[in-house]
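agent: user wants the structure for ABC transporter permease from Antithamnion hubbsii. delegating to structure tool.
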Amino acid sequence: MLNKLSLISKICLSVFNSLNLKKIDIMHLLQHIQVVGPSSLFISLLTAFFIGMVFSLQIVKEFLYLNAVDMIGAVFAISFIRELSPVLTSIIIIGRVGSCFTAELATMCITEQIDALYILGINPIIYLILPRLFACLIMLPILNLLSFATSLSSSAYLCCIIYNIDPRIFFLSAFASLSFLDIIKSSVKSLIFGLLIALISCSWGLSTNISSKGVGTSTTSSVVISLLVVFITDFILSYFMFSGAESTLKLI
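agent: tool returned. relaying tokens verbatim.
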């Protein structure tokens, strides 16, 4: 674990010291953007769609019992934009992309492709890590906002079909409670999660043991550590971002 942490610190220092976009292969970057973004879009939106419906199925009837129909959209919008969308999107990216990054880099290590890059005078940090890092930083906030819109739409749909709640009432309540600052904070969360996912998955891949078993072990470990780090970081960010904020429902 200490070796992996030291490797993360070395990668961070190398990234900031060699942060020159001209050195990054644009085609290589676009390939990873394709993997993180469009290739993960369907599963992210599908997950957000059903999470929104399940969340509505469990919560809406309680609001109907309290005769607080005009609060449903607001509570859902706040829950999705602040917590559910960033975290769920990160979980999808960890399982689909983070594990892929770790397995790719681990395979390159055991087949000595990393050593070949050094022999050719190519910096592996710039060639391998930076494109993956920037791809996560670019695409995670976009996926987060798309997941938020999908979750909110599926919640409105289920509320209309099952509970006969007018979608206009739902969306008026949602947009009345939603602030631009919430969107910014949610995007910042996604940026931080993307940075952590890329750093952990790449570091675990580069520090794998020279064996086929090490590839599987590194991949499993990177997924578990990434999930734990995202959950812990989410609590810390939520505490500092939202603990001192006033109730948004007062504005409705």
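agent: one observation worth passing along. The chain has nine helices and no strands.
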